[in-house]
Amino acid sequence: MNGALEVVRHSPLTGIFLTLLAYRLAIALNRRCHGHPLTNTVLVGVLLVMLALWATGMQYQQYMEGARFIHLLLGPATVALAVPLYDNLHHLKRNAPALLIALVVGGIAGILSGAALGMLFGLPRPILLSILPRSATTPIAMGIAEQIGGIPSVAAACVIVTGIVGAALFGPLRQSLRRLDDLTLGFATGIAAHGVGTARALQLSETAGAFAGLAMGLNGLFTAVLVPLICSILRL
Amino acid sequence: MLNALIWLLGCQLAGEAVARVLSLPVPGPVLGMLLLFLILCARRSIPDDLRATVPGLLRHLSMLFIPAGVGVMLWRSLLAPFAWSLLLVVVMATLVTWLAAAATLHWLGRPVRGRSS
């Protein structure tokens, strides 16, 4: 019996299976709760996997033996966002100037709001610096955090939490701001909550997902340039 | 499926290579997305295989973030002392960012655009 358990625990398939199962259960819960924001599939999926690891005494590294294959798919999936974006080329052409201005305003608001609120709540300096690049994707945010004197791992955690928060806010914001179209909803979500937000926007429509993906890419680039600049201007 | 994977992985690898060579602070997959977008614009159509495979890959994009999310538990001792204030800051700052981008776009652009029910 113990031997069987050891085999399961050490197989790379376990990490994959656990992720699929947690995600499947998260979808079921989300449907049962009529898409309540706190039943966001990434949030519930992550918590279920954590619970399973805790209950079985499995280490994170053991889990990642298999789960890294799922993580690896993020790359090709990001590239694939070019397809819905191309399908929305006519929207992109017509709205290009507005999108660029929204990128600049949203990107700056993202960094300044993090700095102001972080100071208000008295976060220690290394933590404060680590939340500034949180709207970029993980590799960008970790690189920036290191460059400006933050902590890369804290930055990575903030990125994920930001994504989940943004994805959870998507439903309520869409409900309460009925005048916003799919393009606006998607683009704002991509600016504020990168890939996790993009995944949520894709559930609404291809247009929302396409512009979330575009915003994610552009804001990653913009954040990488802007955070060090704002830090030196504000002497953070 | 096969051709689609060759397209996607090829663009990602090219993106990774360009990012490294030009030492850009952008992840390879994001450059790969840009590259594939430019290729699609140049050939003015989406290859059938890509058209057939991509929706399946993107339908469960949320799932692909679960392993990275579980990774947050590695830093729990580092984050625990500030967990609540950090969470509050992230929630409010994300809301501000979202509203700033959405409001700008809403006020600037008024051509008729679709909204799915």
Supply the key terms:
heterodimer; A: 236 residues; mainly alpha; 2 domains; 12 helices; 84% helix; globular; B: 117 residues; 71% helix; 0% strand; extended
Folded structure, characterized:
The complex is a heterodimer of chains A (236) and B (117). Chain A has 236 residues and is mainly α. Chain A has 2 domains: 2-72, no CATH class; 78-234, no CATH class. Chain A contains 12 helices and no strands. In chain A, helix 2 (12-32) crosses helix 3 (41-56) and helix 7 crosses helix 11. The radius of gyration of chain A is 19 Å and the shape is globular. Chain B has a domain at 2-60. Helix content of chain B is 71%, strand content 0%. Chain B is extended. The two termini of chain B are 31 Å apart. The mean pLDDT of chain B is 89. Classes of the chains: A mainly alpha (236), B mainly alpha (117). Chains A and B meet through helix 2, helix 3, helix 4, helix 5 and helix 6 of A and helix 1, helix 2, helix 3, helix 4 and helix 6 of B.
